Amino acid sequence: MARILAIESSCDETAAAIVGDETHVLSSVVASQLSVHGKYGGVVPELASREHLRAIVPVVDEALAQAALRWRDLDAVAATYGPGLAGSLLVGLTYAKAAAFAAGIPLIAVNHIEGHIHAVILEARQRGEPVALPALALVVSGGHTHLFEVRRDGSYARLGRTRDDAAGEAFDKVAKLLGFGYPGGPVIDRIARHGNPEAIRFTIAKMKGNALDFSFSGLKTAVLRWVENNHLDAEIAARRELLQRNPAPSNDEWLEVTPPRTRDLIASFQRTVVNELVGHAIAAADQVEGVSSLIVSGGVACNSALRGAATARAIGLPVHFPSPGLSTDNAVMIAAAAFPKFRRGEFAPLTLAAEPNLQLAGHP
User: What does pLDDT average to over the chain?
Assistant: First the structure.
């Protein structure tokens, strides 16, 4: 059994995992920095780098211990080298390069976005339901909103991308504006279930050029204007006060300080984002010849409205989602993406540099 140790440190999670023969997850460890960044309403790059430095050694040690393996039992080390925060990427990549050198095993460089796609492919194989290719992949998270064609030969073509805010970033910014704290996606999803998604009609500008590109900045501004026009200062202050008293309020506590009109706002905002994401994916399926399935991955893939809409509207296409544990950043997905490279002997030099703006693919 070939075994790969993978390291992920592109943003605010320090993760390590060991995967054997592409589908056997022998260990998975994730150290979250949520408590560090939550008070600032978003990730602070300098703090993220420091936390990665503190966590990287114990996280890797725990991954080895969980798998009951030693360095001599490994066949390769894989690491994310982009895209992401420069300082964060450097911590994981530097550790991986040093470990590969010391253990005398090859280094495999992995694109973080490709990892999100392979998280879904790995779990589909585990279920005995492999993803049919070519596939469309909608990768949606706090830092990324991309639409790709995943080809049979393992290559990718980028069909669309966000031109400003990523969808997850829009969720987080709207949640912060309304006093719900960070991260915003989960609480927005929960509160939206208690609102009317048809109450407020938001529009998103049509993209000039590539119609499959995304833009959520204007929607975020529209929500801001609605909040200003409806004078929500008092209830926003109440939610912030609740968050200070209790960093993890229950649904009932949130609803108590969130009047029906704001629940409607949240539901309408979420509906607009989801319609934009799914609409673009369906439009791409009509344009790309031979598409056999749809992959939806990334942190926003946990959103219940997105899952429901993608499944309902992708008529004739099987839709694959990651489990919640593999939706957000983790190292299992990095190992999964590393295995095809391992099989092909695509190893990286120890001089490999981090690439914060790394692209997975260009336009077809």
Answer: 94
What string of H, E and C letters represents the secondary structure of 212-229? CCECCHHHHHHHHHHHHH
How far is residue 337's CA from residue 360's CA, in Å, rounded to a whole number? 12
- Give the per-residue pLDDT at 235: 96
Domains of the chain: 3-117+326-344 (3.30.420.40), 133-317 (3.30.420.40)
- Sole residue written with tokens 């987080």: 172
Do 320 and 296 form a contact (C-beta atoms < 8 A)?
A: yes
By the 8 A CB rule, do 328 and 353 touch?
no
Of 312, 277, 317, which Cα lies nearest the Cα of 294?
317
The pLDDT assigned to 364 comes to 59
pTM: 0.93
Q: In what order do the strands lie in the sheet with 24-32?
A: 24-32, 13-20, 3-8, 76-82, 107-111
Sign of the alpha-carbon torsion through 298, 300, 304, 305: negative
pLDDT in tens, 126-139: 999 999 999 999 99
Extract the residue ranges of the chain whose pLDDT is less than 50.
none
